[in-house]
């Protein structure tokens, strides 16, 4: 996994911030090449030395189960997501961008591990576990920036 430091944030700080973030903004590429960005919830897990982000098609209201993100990943697995913090005091601003390749989880073992990570982070999934597809994002690169020193 690559790491690029753009501001005063270390690699460990960037990883901690993506682990703690409650929501991110996921960007995928539509089949026509145009961008598609949506808020999403996710959990970070380790796979050996590599990071993997998991998200699932859950039962929150949607127009349809065949969501655009899944179609996009099917035609182009390249994705990015961003977590950030905006504060009126601009000395407290930061963001972390994660770049990777997404795929639908096919093994029951990996699905179980992903849902356990998601349920641990989001207790709402204890009462309404996701029943849709589970997606793994194999992290290639993390880029972080912080306005604060140290």
List the helices and strands and how they pair.
Elements: E1 2-5, H1 11-20, E2 24-29, E3 35-40, E4 43-47, E5 50-56, H2 68-75, E6 78-85, E7 94-104, H3 108-121, H4 124-127, E8 134-146
Parallel strand pairs: 1-8
Antiparallel strand pairs: 2-3, 2-6, 4-5, 5-8, 6-7, 7-8
Descriptive report:
The structure is a single chain. The two termini are 23 Å apart. The chain is globular and about 45 Å long. A hairpin with a 5-residue loop joins strand 2 (24-29) and strand 3 (35-40). Strands 1, 2, 3, 4, 5, 6, 7 and 8 form an eight-stranded mixed sheet that branches. 24% of the residues lie in helices and 40% in strands. The chain has a single domain, classed as Roll (Pnp Oxidase, Chain A). The longest helix is centred in the last third of the chain and has 14 residues, at 108-121. It is α+β, with helices and mostly antiparallel strands and 150 residues long.
